[in-house]
Design a protein that fits this description.
By secondary structure, the protein is of the alpha/beta class. It is 48% helix and 14% strand.
């Protein structure tokens, strides 16, 4: 018997939480869609912004994914408020894309109570043909999760050359590598500082894009398939 984990962090969780035999666990990383590329056409980017209600003069932060407590989006909203206050010239907006469910409605209420609802978009699911443009149009992608088994959006942001601001929790440093600015996900202030740095430091932005591009070379579905096949063959041999 073999267990395939999608990250070394998940492997460690299997050992710590379920007592899995480390000798039977193999790590096989996931990969982003190989068709996911930066969108540079200014007309397409402008149309994307308009479609999602982001003013053309504004910058926006992006998060894509299920709205669950472990995603830490309540702290992201608080950090967003701090950065807006510090940097009014950025005219910053925030897009939280994904199924609202009960947690999403709580986040809407939080944004409303903080007087931020007009600056935060909750567009629901992003369709596959919209993904590349919405990532590419974002000023930064923020991944504030308390826990991730893998963290595929980190690689999607890097594939679209969107500067990545990322929690240092669980698997995320393993996956995003050097192509991110990291923060303590429990610290709203540290998250706000990281976001602000990435928004205003052009050299840092260029560095993150370059390092993200380099980091992506570690991941492909061909590599994942080869490694998965090797694990299956190993299990079949009963080694």
């Amino acid at each position: 018997t073999r267990i395939i984990a999608d990250s070394h962090a998940t492997k460690q969780d299997l050992i710590d939480l379920y007592g899995a035999d480390p000798g039977r666990i193999r790590v096989v990383h996931l990969a982003p869609d190989p068709e996911l590329k930066p969108v540079r056409d200014p007309i397409k980017l402008s149309l994307t912004l308009a479609q999602f209600g982001i003013p053309g003069y504004a910058k926006f932060l992006l998060h894509v994914g299920a709205m669950r407590p472990r995603k830490n989006l309540d702290r992201l909203i608080e950090a967003f408020a701090i950065v807006r206050q510090r940097r009014p010239e950025q005219r910053l907006h925030l897009m939280l894309a994904g199924s609202l469910a009960s947690e999403g409605y709580k986040l809407r209420e939080k944004a409303k109570a903080m007087g931020l609802l007009e600056f935060i978009r909750f567009p629901g699911f992003i369709l596959p043909h919209q993904i590349a443009a919405i990532y590419s149009a974002a000023a930064a992608y923020v991944l504030p999760s308390l826990f991730e088994g893998f963290g595929l959006p980190a690689l999607e942001a890097q594939a679209c050359e969107t500067p990545l601001v990322c929690s240092r929790g669980s698997s995320l440093p393993e996956i995003a590598g050097e192509g991110a600015v990291y923060f303590d996900p429990l610290s709203v202030e540290e998250m706000a500082d990281a976001i602000e740095r990435v928004l205003v430091d052009q050299d840092l932005r260029a560095e993150l894009i370059a390092k993200g591009r380099e980091n992506l070379k570690r991941f492909s579905w061909e590599k994942s398939a080869r490694e998965t096949l090797a694990v299956l063959e190993e299990a079949a041999r009963g080694v």
